[in-house]
Recover the amino acids of this structure.
């Protein structure tokens, strides 16, 4: 499957890329951006387009993101487009930047090691894909 990106949605260029890895989805944010509300909305739309019938595990790369706006953070906390989310960062700065994620509506965990993140996403303890809610308020 070809990666999905928001290239056509933004005037200032590509902000993220989403790929289907089979057992999970991979969302890679571009370096140097501040994630804004419309960025998160576009990523949620892309995740739901790839898996319209069910929620699947999501690996989110935020390695070199410069920041996350408050409205974007709020949407990330309430959004349930994935069954569980592994946030992959490079260091403690990224961990601090995404500390809010522990209050997310779906199981979420921060990792600095991609292998461990994927193991957690795809482990037997991971919940089965959840049917996507059709009526969202």
């Amino acid at each position: 499957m070809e990666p999905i990106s928001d290239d056509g949605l933004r005037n200032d260029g590509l902000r993220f890329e989403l790929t289907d890895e089979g057992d999970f989805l991979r969302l890679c944010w571009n370096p140097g951006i501040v994630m804004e509300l419309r960025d998160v909305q576009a990523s949620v739309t892309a995740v739901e387009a790839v898996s319209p019938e069910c929620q699947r595990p999501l690996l989110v790369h935020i390695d070199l993101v410069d920041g996350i706006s408050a409205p974007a953070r709020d949407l990330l906390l309430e959004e349930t487009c994935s069954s569980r989310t592994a946030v992959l960062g490079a260091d403690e700065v990224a961990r601090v930047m995404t500390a809010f994620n522990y209050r997310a509506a779906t199981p979420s965990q921060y990792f600095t090691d991609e292998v461990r993140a994927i193991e957690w996403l795809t482990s037997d303890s991971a919940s089965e894909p959840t049917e996507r809610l059709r009526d969202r308020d």
About this structure: Strands lie at 4-5, 16-20, 25-29, 34-35, 54-61, 67-68, 82-88, 108-111, 130-131. The chain has a mean pLDDT of 78. The chain is about 30% helix and 25% strand.
